[in-house]
């Protein structure tokens, strides 16, 4: 059975918009993806490493451990051998505690891709390919997310294109989640359950193709 690591934030962790609750595994897009792959005859285990508030390379001034670069290489080592890494980060780079633009966030993504490539995996184990999934643009932050993401809906503009350029530079596959899903109207940040299902449906043939290409 092939192993896929999903490295993400609350959009992949499956937080229910407007709450602190979590969708069940089968309703979160990583879990739904695993089920869809199995249904089409692709035996794959999807490993979730998704942390609420995770940035690409920045620290959260209020909560420790949200810098996505810290410990990433060791996570690759822990989960090896991996057939694929799916990297979906960037949303939290636009929290109001940062002044980042899409360009800054994409450079953070580049640092993560470099860390994955340099991870100290055991000799003879394959270096996993990476699928970069650009998160959908922020909507209008509201409710509990209003102050936390104030201005983020403007500063995140152009993120998908910037991430695609960085993915291309590193020889990685790319998918723009914003072409199939959108942030919930409940908070302007997270994904409703039906959007998780849509994202899994869109990613299933992409992931299956990448796995098949590895033989």
TrEMBL record:
Keywords: Hydrolase. InterPro entries: SGNH_hydro, SGNH_hydro_sf. The keyword DNA-binding does not apply. Signal peptide: none annotated. Residues 6-196 form the SGNH hydrolase-type esterase domain. GO terms for molecular function: hydrolase activity. It comes from the Bacteria. This is SGNH/GDSL hydrolase family protein. It comes from Acidovorax lacteus.
């Amino acid at each position: 059975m092939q192993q896929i690591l999903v490295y993400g934030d609350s959009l992949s962790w499956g937080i229910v918009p407007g709450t602190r609750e979590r969708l069940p595994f089968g309703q979160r897009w990583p879990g739904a993806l695993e089920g869809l792959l199995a249904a089409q005859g692709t035996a794959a285990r999807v490993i979730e490493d998704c942390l609420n508030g995770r940035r690409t390379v920045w620290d959260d001034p209020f909560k420790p451990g949200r810098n996505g670069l810290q410990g990433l290489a060791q996570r690759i080592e822990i989960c090896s051998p991996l057939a694929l890494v799916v990297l979906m980060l960037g949303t939290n780079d636009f929290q109001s505690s940062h002044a980042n633009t899409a360009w800054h966030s994409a450079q953070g993504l580049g640092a993560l891709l470099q860390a994955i490539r340099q991870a100290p995996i055991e000799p003879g184990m394959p270096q996993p390919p990476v699928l970069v999934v650009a998160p959908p643009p922020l909507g209008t932050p509201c409710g509990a997310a209003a102050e936390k993401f104030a201005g983020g809906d403007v500063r995140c503009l152009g993120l998908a294109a910037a991430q695609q350029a960085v993915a291309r530079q590193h020889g990685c596959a790319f998918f723009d989640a914003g072409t199939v899903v959108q942030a919930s109207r409940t908070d302007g940040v997270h994904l409703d359950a039906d959007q998780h299902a849509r994202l899994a449906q869109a990613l299933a043939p992409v992931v299956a193709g990448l796995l098949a290409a590895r033989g």
